[in-house]
Design goal:
3-stranded mixed beta sheet; globular
Length: about 200
Amino acid sequence: LIDFGSVREAMKARGGSTVTGTFGYMAPEQLAGIFAENRINVLFIDDEFADRIPANMDGIEVIWAHTTTAHGSEPTLARIAEGVEQADNAPQLPLFPSHGNIVLMSSGTTGVPKGCEHTQGHMVYTAVSAAGANGFAPEEIVSLCFVPVFWIAGEDLGILIPLVMGGTSILLSRWDAATVVDLVERHGVTTTAATV
């Protein structure tokens, strides 16, 4: 529901939180199941997906991420970022390969999506081995990803491989043939995944 990479890194740097990515087009009932299964207590969400917020949000703080409307005194990612930048003496925790988790989700096609935790070390290994298996050279990686980045294919293609290998990632929230053709030509895309 947000720029997954930046939120993930910010959350890990502030205490090793478990981060669960979701797909903005899931039904509120599916999201409620994910929130319950993973004991979510903070939701970062874009204005675009406000209608997906489940009815019962007891104990879950909503932080508005990419905003197009005013949110009054409600917390927004921009306000939080301003506060972090002003905190010169904010403690920084060391990051270790097993510090912090990401919960990648199944698609939910058979019911409530199911999660699987991955450590930082696991994700780096996945990126390096996937890049090696596909013969990717860092300077050649221009990845176009239109699958959700909370699925393993999206996480690998859209976040991990380009991030770890120093490539470029182009993220789309959904498939659009004309946009894809334009982006391939404009940015010299070298890899994508056509998953169903």
